[in-house]
Amino acid sequence: MGAKQLRDLVEIQIEKSTNFWAGRPKMTIQELEAVERFAKEKSKLFEKVFDSPEKIEKINKMQNSAL
Amino acid sequence: MDFLDKAYNYNFEGITNEVYQFRFISMGIQEITKIVSISPINKNLNWYSVGFGNLENYENTIIVNDLAEINNNDYDEVLATVFMCILHFFISNPDYTILFFGNTLHKHRLYKQKISSNMIILKQYLEISGGRMEQQIKIIEKKQTITRKGKEHERTIREKDLTSLSNSVEIKSIEKYNTTKTADYQFVLFKLKKDL
After folding, report:
1. What is the pTM of this model?
2. A5-29 pLDDT, tens per residue?
3. ipTM summary value
4. Which candidate, B115, B74, B78, B117, places its Cα nearest to that of B98?
């Protein structure tokens, strides 16, 4: 039920978006590269949090107990 | 109107070097092209970080500016779009975790307020947790000039300097998101609900 609702929600949005974006210019290579650079910088900020297997294990446990 | 129904029409631009890229146009006071990126932080745990900002041409270089403080009067629509992109990502990556944080104090507070006020809708699909770090995150103050109603104003942005964190940075706690304790959360985690 929930899964179907989620899929429907995303599919409706994709359909609306496809019509909206039809005929509009695609992103340029420079734009895609800029987004990639930005995303990698953003991710790097939290990389240190996972720099040892012990930390990864601890985070995994904390996260599972929060769910 | 449901919070998620406010989302702008986003376009999934594809995946380049493991970065999921989405684009949309914020249509508030002015039209601003924005992007949402979702990229891996740690592959062992399948943790991904979400970022979003304005796609700008700054001195002939294309950049993504996530420090712009232009109030385009559409915070709800922008955040609803970011959440739709996150849900889109989860459709093909149901076991992954998304880490979310605002890079300025103002934005971080605002995002948590919006998450709290739309908890019922978001919790239909997502498990939401809040986390704290062992270390305090240093704040850098930056001056920024913005134009409002044709007049220039100088404002101070309090940006989080995560690069200043020492090598021993650790996560102190992760707990189920509690709307009465959001001031404590330095980051928020989203995971697709297990029963979906």
Report:
1. 0.89
2. 899 999 999 999 999 999 999 999 9
3. 0.92
4. B115
Cα–Cα separations (whole angstroms), residue B89 to A45, B19, B160, B189, B192:
21, 11, 26, 14, 10
Query: Could you give the CA distance from residue B6 to residue B24 in angstroms, rounded to a whole number?
Result: 13
Could you give the 3-state DSSP secondary structure of residue B32?
Answer: strand
Q: How many domains does chain A have?
A: 1
Contact between A38 and B64 using a beta-carbon 8 Å cutoff:
yes
Question: Looking at residue B23, which CATH number applies to its domain?
Answer: 3.40.630
Chain B residues in contact with A10 (beta carbon < 8 A): 84, 87-88, 91
**If DSSP codes are grouped into helix, strand and coil, which group holds residue B132?**
strand
B179 within a domain of the structure (yes/no): yes
C-alpha–C-alpha distance, residues B185 and B111, integer Å: 11
A31 touching chain B per CB within 8 A:
yes
Nearest to A62 among B87, B171, B195 (CB): B171
